[in-house]
Write a structure and sequence with these properties.
Layout (H helix, E strand, L loop, with lengths): L3 E4 L9 H5 L4 E3 L5 E3 L7 H10 L5 E4 L3
Antiparallel strand pairs: 1-4, 2-3
């Protein structure tokens, strides 16, 4: 089972910290929400940094792929 990052948009404050530390995975979509870019394998270290710096604690790993 592959792990992928997920963002709880109900908790996200749009601080954009994830965009700063991991722009290859997190983007601001045209609707103004944080979105996860699809990858075969996600850069774990980068995503762990985004999780660490997210003040809303809304980024986590999802293993349901």
């Amino acid at each position: 089972m592959a792990l992928s990052p997920t963002v709880d948009l109900n908790q996200c404050t749009l601080c954009e910290a994830c965009l700063e530390v991991c722009p290859e995975v997190f983007v601001l979509n045209p609707a103004g929400y944080i979105e996860v870019v699809e990858h075969q394998k996600y850069p774990e270290e980068c995503i762990e940094e985004a999780i660490k710096y997210c003040p809303a604690e809304c980024i986590s790993w999802d293993g349901s792929d």
